[in-house]
Amino acid sequence: MASYEKLTPPTGGTPIRFENGQPVVPPDPIIPFIRGDGTGVDIWPATQRVLDAAVARAYGGARRIEWFKVYAGDEACELYGTYQYLPQDTLTAIETYGVAIKGPLTTPVGGGIRSLNVALRQIFDLYCCVRPCRYYAGTPSPHRRPQDLDVIVYRENTEDIYMGIEWDAEDPVGQELLRHINDVVIPASPKLGRKRIREGSGIGIKPVSKFGTQRHIRRAIQHALRLEGKRRHVTLVHKGNIMKFTEGAFRDWGYELATTEFRDVCVTERESWILDNLARQPGLSIADNARQIEPGYDNLTPEKRAAVDAEVSAVLAAIGESHGNGRWKEMVLVDDRIADSIFQQIQTRPQDYSVLATLNLNGDYISDAAAAVVGGLGMAPGANIGDSAAIFEATHGTAPKHAGLDRINPGSVILSGVMMLEFMGWQEAADLITRGISGAIAAGEVTYDLARLMEPPVEPITCSGFAEAVVRHFDA
After folding, report:
1. Which of 49, 90, 188, 333: CA 20 to 30 A from 79?
2. 253-259-264 Cα angle (round to 5)
3. Which residues have C-beta within 8 Å of that of residue 271, sequence separation ≥ 6?
């Protein structure tokens, strides 16, 4: 039995355990929850009301959640002492029970933790941050057709610059590293030419590993396999045109995974072109097929034309029979796009995308941009998933000036609860909440952040009132 300094676990309920990275969920799971700072005081009770009502309605008492309150952020400091933003009790509870949910947390001032959210992800190796962005009819949006966007952002959580390996411009260790790079590393690397880092620069390191990349993209592909039709589509998002050995490697390792481990269920974009060309034009020559997939083929050097020809021949030999004649259309399509292009395309061609697999920083930006299209962070859920734990969370901040006023939108945490229920395999309860949210918004029963943007404007309801509206619309 786990021991706690200041907490008493529920006397009933059963822990969730993980096997091969997947949760094994009993009918009475114990789930730790962190209320959250600021508006968490309003948001969490509303969320718990909705989750409990959905589970009770869906399963008639055969399943239930045993909630276990744990502490982080400012509320933890009140109980455990100054700077105790993330007490050991909370870490023990999450480790013991596997799945947790939390409201928004304050970024600490002092205490040695840059971000509680990042700390939790790193401590429990929650390497996938999953953020679905879809539109609920009636939600005000600055876009003309927000309903066209329905994407799931898979953001790698543990690498990239979020590892926090950096030194400020006056740190003597960092400046010693800068001198070593300028005087030893760059001169020993001919490809870097005569580049030099300016004296007095802050330095950060951006690690991207094959292991971290492929375990993350593996989950993205597995998610796509649960979808249907054109939704079976994973896009590797990167800036590999500039950062060739980090972001470019992310792309390359993603393709490698798709064409080895997932060879029987995946096709790359270029492979699909080759297969489709031959299906539409039986008897098409290798050279003519290559000409259709490679712009400027006839102007290439003989060596480059031969390389494209060899690519076409290799694809047809390897998967022509297994993936050809349109079979690839039922598989997961894997392609890649430059990150800045995706910012434009989720607005101009959102229907072309489904699962976006990204590195850490790009995923942070892109998920917020996508959320803005469908109604903002108040309607944006998030999950952090690893092989032995998962934490579901609000994606917005604490908004302390609204705390205790019963007016904030609880949608982000409620929808994170939907993701948690789906992760647990409790789809019936999750579907009730999704219907309830859709029905409440369509009826104009929304909190002030959405009410003020609706045309014509509607009278806002309270945070707790929104929860009740969601429950009333379960059968909408």
Report:
1. 49
2. 145
3. 315, 319, 323, 328
Distant-in-sequence contacts of 347-353, Cβ < 8 A, 24+ apart: 347/143, 347/373, 350/145, 350/148, 350/149, 350/150, 350/151, 351/148, 351/149, 353/151, 353/233, 353/235
Query: Which tokens belong to 441?
Result: 């918004």
Query: Burial level of 222, CB count in 10 A (0-12/13-18/19+)?
Result: middle
Instruction: Name the DSSP class of 378.
Output: G
Tokens 């951006």 correspond to: 206
What does the pLDDT read at residue 162?
87
Query: Please, which pLDDT band fits residue 401 given cuts at 50, 70 and 90?
Result: confident
Active site residues per annotation: 162, 239, 340, 364
Decide which of 116 and 62 is more confident. 62
Q: Is 69 exposed, middle or buried (0-12, 13-18, 19+ CB in 10 A)?
A: middle
- Strand, helix or coil at 98? coil
Q: Could you give the angle at the alpha carbon of 292 between the alpha carbons of 286 and 294, nearest 5°?
A: 95
| Residue 283 CA: distances (Å) to CA of 268, 289, 329, 423, 456 | 22, 10, 21, 47, 60
Are 78 and 97 a contacting pair, CB within 8 Å?
Answer: no
Adjacent-strand bridge partners of 133: 151
Closest to 236 (Cα-Cα) out of 220, 225, 259, 212: 220
Measured distance CA(51)–CA(64) in Å, rounded: 10
Rounded Cα gap, residues 106 and 180, in angstroms = 37
* CA 199 from centre of chain: 37
